[in-house]
Design goal:
single chain; Isopropylmalate Dehydrogenase; globular; alpha/beta
Length: 316
C-alpha cells in the first residue's frame, strides 16, 4: 500500500506534536508533510527520537515564517494550505493511499486574506466542487452533518430538499462502499426543538425535512425522520442506526464529542480519496508542552487504513 499522508497542520499548534507521537505508534507506512526543521525542533522539545524510524518518511515543505509554539502567525497560512495542496495532489495522483489532517486554525488563515471556512470545504473545492459530507465516527457511533461551518442564523436557509437529497445520497453511498455496510440505517434529525412539535415550533420539518426523507426512501435509502435531536442521541436509540444526520454543526458535534472526545475521527465523505482527521482543534496552549493527546490522530490513521483496505477489497 502507498503511504498514508499526514499533514501536520498549524505549526504553532499541537499538529506537529501529535503527528510525531502518532507516527511513532503506527504500523503502516506514513509520510509526514511539514517543515523538517520544525518537526526536528518539536521532536527535541518533546524528547522524541529524531530522525524518525522507518517506515516513517518526511516530505519537507518549508514554512513561510519562523514559528513559536503557541503563537499564531498569519504569514504561515500559505504554508498550511501548501501542505493540504501537496497532499491532495499526491492522493489524486496515487502517491498517497489516504490523507490524514492535523488541525488547522481557521482564524489565522482568514486573517491572511484567504477565505477559508474549514478543511472539508477546502478539500471539496480543490477536488472540483464535489458534494461532500462531514462525518464524525467513533466505533459504531457515526454522526453526519447536513450543514457545516455556518453561522447559526444561516442554517435554516441552507437546509433545502435538494441539499438533503445530495447529503443523504453521499452518506448512504459511502456508508456502503467505504464502511462496508450493505444496508445502512440513517436517522435524520429535525432542525427545531422536538422536531418542530407538529409545526408549532417551526415548519422546516414539515416543509423540507420530511419530504426529503420520503424521497430518499423512495430511492432505496433507509432513512428515518425527522426525529427530535434531543433524544436520538440517547445510546439506546442511537444504537439502532448506522449513522445520525444532524442538521447543523453543534447539534451533532456536541453530543458526539461528549460521548467520544479524543477518540473520534472526522471523515470527509464524497471525495475521490479517503480523508480522515482529528475531532479537535489546534490547542495552542498545549503546543510543545508534551501534554497533547494524540489519541484522535492515532484513531484517524487506523480508520484511514481500514477504509483504504475496505475499498481495495471491494474492487477485487
Amino acid at each position: 500500500m502507498s503511504p498514508l499522508a499526514i499533514t501536520t497542520g498549524e505549526p504553532a499548534g499541537i499538529g506537529p506534536d501529535i503527528a510525531l507521537h502518532a507516527a511513532l505508534s503506527a504500523t503502516r507506512p506514513l509520510r509526514l508533510l511539514g517543515d523538517e526543521g520544525l518537526l526536528a525542533a518539536r521532536a527535541g522539545r518533546l524528547g522524541l527520537p529524531w530522525p524518525l524510524p522507518a517506515p516513517i518518511e518526511i516530505e519537507h515543505v518549508p514554512m513561510a515564517a519562523p514559528c513559536t509554539a503557541g503563537r499564531l502567525d498569519p504569514h504561515n497560512a500559505a504554508y498550511v494550505l501548501a501542505l493540504l495542496d501537496r497532499a491532495i495532489d499526491g492522493c489524486r495522483g496515487g502517491a498517497y493511499a489516504a490523507l490524514i489532517t492535523a488541525p488547522v486554525h481557521k482564524g489565522a488563515i482568514a486573517e491572511s486574506g484567504v477565505p477559508f471556512t474549514g478543511n472539508t470545504e477546502y478539500l471539496a473545492e480543490r477536488c472540483g466542487g464535489v458534494p461532500v459530507v462531514m462525518l464524525l465516527a467513533a466505533g459504531a457511533l457515526r454522526v453526519a452533518l447536513a450543514s457545516t461551518h455556518l453561522p447559526l442564523a444561516q442554517v435554516p436557509a441552507a437546509i433545502t430538499r435538494e441539499s438533503l437529497r445530495v447529503t443523504l445520497d453521499v452518506l448512504d453511498r459511502d456508508l456502503r462502499h467505504r464502511f462496508g455496510l450493505p444496508a445502512p440505517r440513517i436517522a435524520v434529525c429535525g432542525l427545531n426543538p422536538h422536531a418542530g412539535e407538529g409545526g408549532h415550533l417551526g415548519r422546516e420539518e414539515i416543509d423540507t425535512i420530511a419530504p426529503a426523507v420520503a424521497a430518499a426512501r423512495a430511492r432505496g435509502i433507509d432513512a428515518v425522520g425527522p426525529l427530535p435531536a434531543d433524544t436520538v442521541f440517547v445510546p439506546a436509540q442511537a444504537r439502532g442506526y448506522d449513522a445520525i444526520l444532524a442538521m447543523y454543526h453543534d447539534q451533532g458535534l456536541a453530543p458526539f464529542k461528549q460521548a467520544s472526545f479524543g477518540q473520534g475521527v472526522n471523515v470527509t465523505l464524497g471525495l475521490p480519496f479517503v480523508r480522515t482527521s482529528v475531532d479537535h482543534g489546534t490547542a495552542l496552549e498545549l503546543a510543545g508542552s508534551g501534554r497533547a493527546d494524540a489519541s484522535s490522530l492515532v484513531a484517524a490513521i487506523d480508520l484511514a487504513g481500514q477504509l483504504v483496505q475496505a475499498a481495495q477489497s471491494a474492487q477485487r
